Amino acid sequence: MPDNSKSLMIQTTDLTKRFGRFTAVDKLNLSIEKGEIFGFLGANGAGKTTAIRMLCGLLKPTSGTAVVADCDITHQSEQLKTRIGYMSQRFALYEDLTVKENVLFYSGIYQVETSRALSVAEELLSEMGIDLGSKALTSSLPLGFKQRLALTCSLLHDPRLLFLDEPTSGVDPQARRAFWNVINRLAEKGKTVIVTTHFMDEAEYCHRVVIMQEGKAIALGEPAVLKNEHSVPNMQQLFLKLVS
Amino acid sequence: MQDIIQVRDIMHQYGDKTALEKISLQVSQGEIHGLIGPDSAGKTTLMRILCGLLNIQSGTVSVFDLDVSKKFKEIRSRLGYMPQRFSLYQDLSVEENLLFFARLFSVTVQERNQRLPELYAFSRLEQFKSRRAGALSGGMKQKLALSCALVHRPELLILDEPTYGVDPVSRQEFWQMLKSIQKGGTSILVSTPYMDEAELCDRVTLIYNGKVLASDTPTKIKANWNKVVFRVTSPEMKELEPELVKIIEIESCQRFGNELHLVLQADEAASIINQLETRFDEYMPMLEQIQPGMEDIYLSYMQAVQHKEPSHAG
Ligand SMILES: Nc1ncnc2c1ncn2[C@@H]1O[C@H](COP(=O)(O)OP(=O)(O)OP(=O)(O)O)[C@@H](O)[C@H]1O
Ligand SMILES: [Mg+2]
Q1: Secondary structure class of A106 (helix, strand, coil)
Q2: Predicted pLDDT of residue A5
Q3: What is the per-residue DSSP string for A59-79?
Q4: Measured between alpha carbons, how far is A72 from A67 in angstroms, rounded to an integer?
Q5: How far are the Cα atoms of A201, B177, B253 from residue A244, in angstroms, in the given order?
Q6: Fewer CB atoms < 10 Å away: N or C end of chain A?
Q7: Cα–Cα distance between B194 and B41 in angstroms, integer?
Q8: Cα–Cα distance, B250 to B85 (Å, whole number)
Q9: Which tens digit of pLDDT belongs to each residue from B214-239?
């Protein structure tokens, strides 16, 4: 068998998380390649956020292992954190800071030189239509701007792998399309993007998706292939067919 | 039909920022009325004014035919409001939260015992009823918050983005429940970023930059829109999209999952389609006229207003 581990960004082996007697993630086996846009789909409580938090080194697995960006998630979690960006389900921005202060705060966390962080932020934010010098507090920004600011903060240290947990929840149709343009551009620049979403049109934009149910992967593959296999016209129908 | 909400010419400013600019709106008794528009359009401000949580700076607002600036106490006792970020008691269990809100809203034991199974059927939280709310997933918390808001049946429900983070199956079930609550006589004002939900409303108001752009039934909004939509499907979508975007006669070319939607002026459609068929012969895209959806219309309105007044960022 050819060794393809060099092109893999994530490989999990029976990755499992239990909270007491409840199993949130159940023997998950995934291989995700460099440069992929990979989607996690599933009903509320299926285990997406729990799986992602383990892959980010934020939560210890109960059993099983995973290698992410060449780090073992259990034993090299500190090193792992320097290689990945993570945007959580409720973005962790400081609402009473300005845009620039948030950028400076995160540059401290990721230990990026201030001048470099500011120039990275300047470029990304202007691309997304946000003024780094704005005096407005983050709390007064529309959700779409907060989302782009949160994304920027997760990119300051130029990670090769990005985890976006529901980046577009609550975002209107136009802003969602703009955000997906940014995701596509990041992937074109070679970043691997792991994303969760409850918008099934967005599932179509992923290279591959996994559908989770009660902690297990019940479907895995390219949207076109999965739709074909289950004879459905779109991902919305696929989701309703497999999950309800 | 009688209006349960009447908003006339209200303006609202936060400091020197205008959130609402002379908005007027009517919600009829018994309808499900959807508020759509980008974030910061003013939907939440409007809802907070209706609930008497923000002072009215100018204009008039009446709910149940009562003046909100004078009778807000009475109004508040007759309506249910679920804010965008509803806080649950994180340390109480799922069931304790439901019972707490039932008591808060003075729901009788009999009503409560009838409603809990309905709410559990939609939320699928029954098997987790003794779990601490704080240990639920994001969408499960949202569903619990929704269930708490729906444990009573006021005359009017105001729900600010109730399906935030809710999965597709539960969203369907939630809307079935809204319809049955409506049948029971409750009027509902609901905001949403999901255009498939806007389709399910009796009437929809589209707000942008504190102004109403349209307010009508989805059917009439579509009928009054003088454009047509063509669906494009092709195995070479990636190559095709940038080419289509360049063609100026096409008003807009937007992605809809695995399809592209082209918006064309009705009277130019035939000639443009003709031109496309010759030009893209080699890619052989499938072109098919379809009924416009609310998402097509939403995007088209946004494009038109932003073209006129480019929004200032940051
Ligand atoms: N600390 C905890 N203690 C107990 N159960 C937990 C804890 N954290 C998560 N869970 C449970 O694990 C399951 C999976 O949660 P998770 O947040 O991973 O779901 P999700 O797929 O991200 O859902 P959503 O779409 O709602 O965000 C849920 O049943 C949740 O209640
Ligand atoms: Mg989650």
Answers
A1: helix
A2: 59
A3: S--SEEEEEETTEETTTSHHH
A4: 5
A5: 18, 16, 33
A6: N
A7: 15
A8: 40
A9: 999 999 999 999 899 999 988 888 88
Q: Is A21 in the pocket of ligand 1 (CB under 6 A)?
A: no
Ligand 1, atom 18, residue with closest C-alpha: A47
The amino acid at B305: V
Q: How far apart are CA B47 and CA B98, in angstroms?
A: 24
| Tokens 């939607």 belong to residue | B261
A69: left (phi over 0), alpha (psi -120 to 50) or beta: left
* C-alpha distance from residue B122 to each of A137, B166, B197 (Å): 38, 11, 16
Q: What are phi and psi of B2, to 5 degrees?
A: -80, 150
Query: Averaging pLDDT over each range in A107-111, B228-232, B238-242, which range is the top one?
Result: B228-232
Q: What is the largest CA-CA distance in chain B?
A: 70
> Three-class SS of residue B191?
strand
Across the strands, what pairs with B265?
B227
Q: Which residue has the tokens 């349209």?
A: B214
- Per-residue pLDDT band for B313 (boundaries 50, 70, 90) equals very low
Domains of chain A by range and CATH? 1-83+160-172+179-244 (3.40.50.300), 92-158 (no CATH)
Domains along the sequence of chain B with CATH: 3-217 (3.40.50.300), 226-291 (3.30.70)
Alpha carbon of B30 to ligand 2 centroid (Å): 35
Triad B3, B9, B14: Cα angle to 5°? 120
- Could you tell me the two tokens for A33? 């390649």
Q: 3-class SS at B184? A: coil
Ligand 1, residue A212: give the atom nearest the CA.
21
Residue A170 is nearest to which of B40, B124, B161, comparing CB atoms?
A: B161
Q: What is the predicted ipTM? A: 0.89
CB A183 within 8 A of CB A164: yes
Alpha-helical runs (H) found in chain B: 43-50, 68-78, 94-104, 109-123, 138-149, 168-183, 195-198, 218-223, 237-246, 269-279, 294-308
Q: Tell me phi and psi for residue A15, to 5 degrees.
A: -65, 125
